[in-house]
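User: Modeling request: complex.
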Amino acid sequence: MDSVGEQELIIGRRREGRWLDGTPGQEQPNFAADPHGRATPLDSHVRLAGPERRNLPPLVRRSYRYDKGDGDSGLIFSCFQRDLVQGFETVQRRLEGESLSMYVLTTSGGYFFVPPPGDGWAEAFLRS
Ligand code: HEM
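Assistant: Request completed. Predicted assembly structure:
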């Protein structure tokens, strides 16, 4: 298994939340000031997923890890967005070649329509 330091370089953030350039976790790092990726590698997950810190991708992530105990374990990555192209698809394309990819084996996936709470959406949908 990679050391914690190596894992942090692959993700692009310290486990305790601080950014690799020392920026506190609640603040935004300045990736532009690190054009060669000396602090935060250019192929790290957070740098590729959200390179523009003032304009983060329009998606909300919620992942679930699972372990069935028979060797089948992994992560169910899910995210919510209004627009799949602007959300998931843009980020997924940017993540091609990230250093995390050697640990990721995608086995399946799907897109699901999630209606907002209440009944109003059905009528609006049928009218459009
Ligand atoms: C095995 C798969 C994945 C793992 C283990 C993983 C893990 C992580 C971790 C640890 C973070 C940092 C969380 C934080 O800083 O609070 C993160 C951030 C993020 N991930 Fe993933 N992720 C995975 C897949 C994906 C996929 C498939 C996408 C979208 C296509 C994605 C999009 C993002 C985004 C947008 C961020 C936030 C970046 C930011 O705030 O700058 N991730 N991920």
